[in-house]
Design a protein that fits this description.
globular; binds manganese (II) ion; 312 residues; Ferritin; 3 strands
Length: 312
């Protein structure tokens, strides 16, 4: 069973809403190499693990549990990038109003007799406004639904670990590309964290393969590029978050038998498994969006919600 703490695994920086930034982040959520895939792949591999290789099962499961929090973090980030974009007048806005006219344009959806959702038809994925109330969807950046067929869980420990390393490396590659597509601070704060954590997970699976006899030499990380050139990533790497693993287990874990000692990158750094979960950051409630009819509570229903809140 799993326990839940209502916190984000990393804080999200504030910036303007930006539906284009939200859409490129969808690849990191529901794409073939996105967070939904890493979460499901590692959980299935750990649920289906056979035989007596407990430290390896614990390592795969510990990473899988962390990936649940990555799905939560990237979904929340997409929500923040979409929320309020129906009044969006920023540099990427596609409204008819430009320049001085944009400054005079109504900031509230529907104000001055305008169409409340007139930004939505120009968004890269109109489903963010039609199917969801300015929120994330389980799809990739091209709108393809997430697929269970992405999950690789063969039951062969070496093959599963090799595939996991390829998955983390491709995830890191794609997130570096996404970072370079937008300077939106909301997007970058989450992408930077995920780049640093992909790095840690590459090391975790490399370490596991190393303990089975594989020598990585100078191959890792893939892409072999120093992500500390990105200032948001540098800040996190200075804290060493790319060298740490948390196992998120209340009953103890044996993953630390694998994830400890010399980094498989052989750069003189050491990796370590921490017993404590990360501190976490608060999750703010999304505001009501009357133009999306969400949550769409009438005064009578609101009264009942209030009654539930008062209930002791
Ligand atoms: Mn992840
Ligand atoms: Mn990962």
């Amino acid at each position: 069973m799993f326990f839940h703490t209502q916190k984000l695994i990393n804080p999200i920086a504030a910036d303007e809403p930006d539906p284009a930034a939200a859409n490129i982040l969808q690849e990191g959520l529901g794409g073939q190499f996105g967070e939904m895939r890493t979460m499901m792949q590692y959980l299935f591999q750990s649920f289906n693990a056979r035989g007596d290789a407990k430290p390896f099962k614990d390592l795969i499961q510990g990473v899988g549990i962390e990936e649940i929090s990555h799905v939560e973090l990237i979904t929340t980030t997409i929500n923040l990038l979409l929320d309020g974009s129906s009044r969006y007048q920023g540099k990427n806005a596609k409204t008819k109003a430009k320049g001085a006219a944009a400054k005079k344009a109504p900031k509230e959806p529907g104000a001055g007799g305008t169409t409340p959702l007139d930004e939505a038809p120009f968004a890269p994925n109109t489903h963010h406004f039609i199917v969801a109330p300015q929120c994330a969807l389980p799809v990739d950046a091209a709108g393809n639904p997430w697929s269970g067929s992405y999950v690789y869980a063969s039951g062969n420990l070496v093959l599963d670990l090799m595939y996991n390393l390829m998955l983390e490396s491709t995830g890191r590659l794609q997130k570096c590309r996404i970072y370079e597509m937008s300077d939106n601070k909301t997007l970058r704060s989450t992408v930077a964290f995920l780049i640093a954590r992909d790095h840690a997970h590459e090391l975790a699976f490399a370490k596991a393969l190393e303990s089975l006899g594989v020598n990585w030499g100078k191959v890792l990380p893939i892409p072999n590029f120093d992500a500390s050139q990105y200032p948001e990533v540098k800040k996190l790497m200075d804290l060493g978050i790319h060298l740490k693993q948390h196992h998120f287990r209340l009953d103890g874990s044996e993953m630390g038998k694998i994830f400890q000692g010399n980094s498989p990158v052989n750069d003189g750094t050491e990796v370590e498994t921490e017993e404590e979960a990360p501190e976490g950051a608060p999750i703010e409630d999304l505001p009501e969006r009357p133009e999306e009819f969400a949550p769409g509570l009438t005064p009578e229903l609101l009264e009942m919600v209030e009654a539930v809140k008062r209930y002791k």
